[in-house]
Amino acid sequence: MDVVTRTEIAEYPLISRGKVRDIYAIDDDRLLVVTTDRMSAFDVVMNVPIPHKGVVLNKITIFWMRRFEDIVPNHLLDTEVANFPEPLHKYASQLEGRAVIVKRAQPLPIECIVRGHITGSGWKDYQKTGAVCGIPLPAGLLESAKLETPLFTPSTKADLGQHDENISLDKAIELAGADRAEQAQSIALALFSRGREHAESKGLIIADTKFEFGMVGNTLTLIDEVLTPDSSRFWPMDGYTPGQSQPSFDKQYLRDYLSTLDWNKEAPAPPLPEEIVTQTRAKYIEAYERLTGETLGL
């Protein structure tokens, strides 16, 4: 399976090249989404890829979307390259395992973050204010502590190279409309609860995650990536100890390494040692295999 950092598909117009995904317009109703092996951290794309990372993200998203179909519709139309439009078949080696055909959706202007444990920016916020994104929490919580009730903490959607900003539910309602924002909140919390229950049965904790929704006609639809190592923090249940940071199966390993460097977290990204690339790749693959019970054979 190829390592893919950039696609050039001449037959269809490229409408977006994001931090990780290349998106092409198939027609007025369908998109081709290709999840590359580009790696971003702190909203900066690294100079080297994480081999086959895109395959992990794509396949784990498909796994969850199918598992959540009774909660919310998703945008998937086809996941097998053999069934894609004929002009795409010559790109099979680049698309296999990492591309899907999806319904066009109008994305909501917010990202739906759910926090089940207090960590990352939420922990920093709590230390300063006693709250997370303006939501007061009990005093004396430890780093990585499980929250009695998961928190919905929406954020803005930043342009490439910019940083998302946490916002209040009132601001999310202002941006997305009351009905859509409140529906997105309810569904995001339901997805998190279902996902966390499954992950715990596989020995993993989902500390927090980000969901994205869009409108397909008048239907709120789950889009983009779902409970992946890029959008979530996965911790092993074995050895989980509140009061400290936790080992992880996600991009936190890379973030931790980058935080040891004299780097201002702006482009250009620093070079990545081979060991960091190899270990990050292994963590992504292990997260997929533990959650799904399947092997990738990579």
Automatic annotation (TrEMBL):
Keywords: ATP-binding, Ligase, Nucleotide-binding, Purine biosynthesis. It holds the Pfam family SAICAR_synt. The keyword ATP-binding applies. GO terms for cellular component: cytoplasm. It catalyses: 5-amino-1-(5-phospho-D-ribosyl)imidazole-4-carboxylate + L-aspartate + ATP = (2S)-2-[5-amino-1-(5-phospho-beta-D-ribosyl)imidazole-4-carboxamido]succinate + ADP + phosphate + 2 H(+). Pathway: Purine metabolism; IMP biosynthesis via de novo pathway; 5-amino-1-(5-phospho-D-ribosyl)imidazole-4-carboxamide from 5-amino-1-(5-phospho-D-ribosyl)imidazole-4-carboxylate: step 1/2. Transmembrane segments: none annotated. Its EC number is 6.3.2.6. One of its GO terms (molecular function) is ATP binding. Residues 15-268 form the SAICAR synthetase/ADE2 N-terminal domain. SUPFAM superfamilies: SAICAR synthase-like (SSF56104). One of its GO terms (biological process) is 'de novo' IMP biosynthetic process. InterPro entries: SAICAR_synt/ADE2_N, SAICAR_synth, SAICAR_synthetase_CS. Belongs to the SAICAR synthetase family. NCBIfam families: PRK13961.1, purC. This is Phosphoribosylaminoimidazole-succinocarboxamide synthase. The lineage of its organism: Bacteria, Pseudomonadati, Thermodesulfobacteriota, Desulfovibrionia, Desulfovibrionales.
